[in-house]
Amino acid sequence: MMKFENFQAGRWQGRYHYRSFEPTLVNHGWTWEDPTIHALLESANRALGELNAFSLIVPDIDLFIQMHVVKEAQTSSRIEGTQTGIDEALMPEEHIQVEKRDDWREVRNYIEAVNTAIAKLQTLPLSNRLLKETHAVLMQGVRGEHKQPGEFRTSQNWVGGSKLNDAVYIPPHPDGVPELMSDLEKLWHNEAITVPHLVRIAISHYQFETIHPFNDGNGRIGRLLIPLYLVSHGLLAKPSLYLSDFFERNRSSYYDALMRVRVANDMIHWVRFFLSGVTETATKGREVFRQILALRTEVEQIVLRLGKRTPNARQVLNLLYSQPLISASDIERTLKVSAPTANALIRDLSQLGVLAETTGQRRGRTYVFERYLALFSS
Length: 378
Fold this sequence. Notes:
By secondary structure, this protein is mainly alpha-helical. Helix content is 58%, strand content 5%. A three-stranded antiparallel sheet has the order 5-7-6. The protein has a two-stranded parallel ribbon with strand order 1-4.
């Protein structure tokens, strides 16, 4: 049993011309005396439960979850330096400026990685195997494709700086990565210890980022680990909680809190920060769902004015909830209607104020459901 107050995060191990941080194992019982953690844990669990309730009562929830995934992919990638906006993430590749396409592909890979990982949870437990398979999807055909996609690293990596000599942080030597990741996986499924799930995932995210098991993509996979854990353990019915937005808005505090564990053994500060993030993010997520439902009710009423064209217009709305940037050809393909019908539907929804044209072109026009997209851009 390890008490947070007595925790020793690891040791700095001298190497040839640098020192790597070798973290201690984490698969054991955890306790703490700090009363703030109890209060934060209670708030976080309540907020998470309220967010999850929306997943259970909102019809067609998966339509809206897809936009949460797009938002997460765009934000999590932005932390790593990509410059793709959420509107760009929804566009087809040919509409993206050539110099921005590498960034765009990284975001699209992340969307695919999230969707693939969530689908695999139906048949595969949260595991290193699942993380490796997800990493392979994340790294396909982008700048990280030469950095062992789908495999734990076999060379020394570092965080910050241009080389080992001026790195901000140097993770453990690659020889220790398999044992450290095996220990972390055991913590996810250890039923012999009574450690709350939110505390386990707080420790897990810290430990994953500390191990930095992949050559590239550790930040994104480590952040994705959070909703994967929550869904796999039944705390969320749907992947509706993503902390990247909180971490990005508090970026220096996030990195400082992780580093403070390694340098000063201060796991309490990290767990407090993490639980505050869960509460704030879940509360914000619940509010977004509430606004989505209000908007949905309003536009459902508006399209009733279309009379016999209402059923088709409703199908377009369902497409817009998962893809709020569309073209006439998207409607043709999804609804299996003719080009004139698709264009008529766009004209109807534009006149009703649901859609707005975005390109100003005569051909290849795209249209946006602005009020809906704005809920994910704020």
